[in-house]
Automatic annotation (TrEMBL):
Gene3D superfamilies: 3.40.50.12230
A Pfam short name: Formyl_trans_N
Residue ranges constituting the Formyl transferase C-terminal domain according to the UniProt record: 204-306
The organism's taxonomic lineage, starting at the top: Bacteria, Bacillati, Actinomycetota, Actinomycetes, Kitasatosporales
UniProt name for this protein: Methionyl-tRNA formyltransferase
Organism this protein belongs to: Streptomyces spinoverrucosus
Domain Formyl transferase N-terminal residue range list: 1-170
Top-level taxon of the source organism: Bacteria
GO MF, any single term: methionyl-tRNA formyltransferase activity
Key words, A-Z: Transferase
A single GO cellular-component term on record: cytosol
Entry keyword annotation includes Transferase: yes
SUPFAM superfamilies per the UniProt record, alphabetical: FMT C-terminal domain-like, Formyltransferase
Length: 315
């Protein structure tokens, strides 16, 4: 089949690589210009560079729909469009243009976690598995009929970085298998169960701010969900922002006010956590490693030289 690819960052790069290695012909690539957004500077393998290395025509767009792009798409005469990590809505005059429509590759197990940063949100929420979905694009973002899904388990110490590497490796096989099913006429499309759908917004710095009224178990996942190279979970100590790099749920139960720097436990320092921490029946969060705004990392036991005081959500 003749394929046009819309995609960006490493997700799009993996998709284009799979297409170039397949028996299908890539006739045009559309990708975004480079961005300074924090979440777009990481996993930033260039789709444009890969296309140019294989002499595939490339168009750069922040948003689609202009006459030049539509003309180029029609002249390319694709049998199908394949999209992965295209950051803006595609109009029907694009996604319905080819005979086989548009196949979108999304890094969640739809219908859950449609939208943005699904791995981070899924880890924060304690999901037991994550994965990749190949589905037909329609007018509602990430809501089209599903063709294929592949899942991987989430382990008790996995970070978002671990899950990224595990799921990005699923992209090539799912792209190839999906296109082969479509080309052979054997594709079976399953409508999504809208009662199970959830949609998540783009992340911003505000979303990494620690709320010490959350239970320690939730905060421990919150830290793992924002592992390097993602923007880390942060809090404030004596007016200065610090990033929490490593943490654990305490063995002991500690009572008091959420955010209180309380006591050493093991290789870290316990911070009181949970809206009901006053009862003394909840574990705290053992902070193990922190990073200051100048980029210096410390063991928490070195950074917090004395106990007492509070970690706060604002300076």
């Amino acid at each position: 089949m003749r394929v046009v690819m819309f995609g960006y960052q490493t997700w799009g790069h993996r998709t284009l690589g799979a297409l170039l290695d397949s028996r299908h012909e890539v006739v045009l690539v559309v990708t975004h210009p480079k961005s300074d957004h924090a979440y777009e500077r990481i996993w930033s393998d260039s789709v444009a560079d890969l296309a140019e290395q294989h002499d595939v025509p490339v168009l750069l767009r922040n948003r689609p729909g202009d006459d030049e792009l539509l003309r180029a798409l029609k002249e390319a005469e694709p049998d199908i469009i394949v999209a992965n990590n295209w950051r803006t809505w595609l109009p029907p005059e694009i996604f319905d243009l080819p005979p086989h429509g548009t196949l979108n590759i999304h890094d969640s197990l739809l219908p859950a976690y449609a939208g943005f940063s699904p791995l981070i949100w899924a880890l924060i929420n304690g999901e037991k598995q994550v994965g990749v979905t190949a589905h037909r694009m329609d007018a509602e973002l990430d809501m089209g009929d599903i063709l294929l899904q592949r899942a991987v388990p989430v382990g008790p110490t996995d970070t978002a970085t671990d899950l990224f590497h595990r799921t990005v490796d699923l992209i090539g096989p799912i792209v190839t298998d999906a296109l082969d099913l479509i080309a052979s006429g054997k594709a079976v499309w399953t409508p999504q169960d809208r009662s199970r759908s959830s949609f998540f917004h783009k992340r911003s710095p505000q979303d990494s701010r620690i709320d010490w009224t959350w239970p320690a178990e939730d905060l421990e996942r919150f830290v793992r969900a924002q592992s390097d190279p993602y923007p880390n979970a942060f809090t404030h100590h004596r007016g200065e922002r610090i990033r929490i790099l490593s943490a654990a749920v305490s063995e002991g139960r500690y009572g008091g006010t959420p955010g209180r720097i309380f006591i050493r436990e093991g290789d870290g320092v316990v911070v009181v956590a949970g809206a009901d921490a006053r009862t003394g029946r909840l574990p705290g969060l053992v902070v193990r490693r922190v990073r200051t705004e100048d980029g210096t990392e410390y063991a928490a036991t070195d950074y917090f030289r004395t106990m007492g005081g509070y970690l706060t959500d604002r300076p």
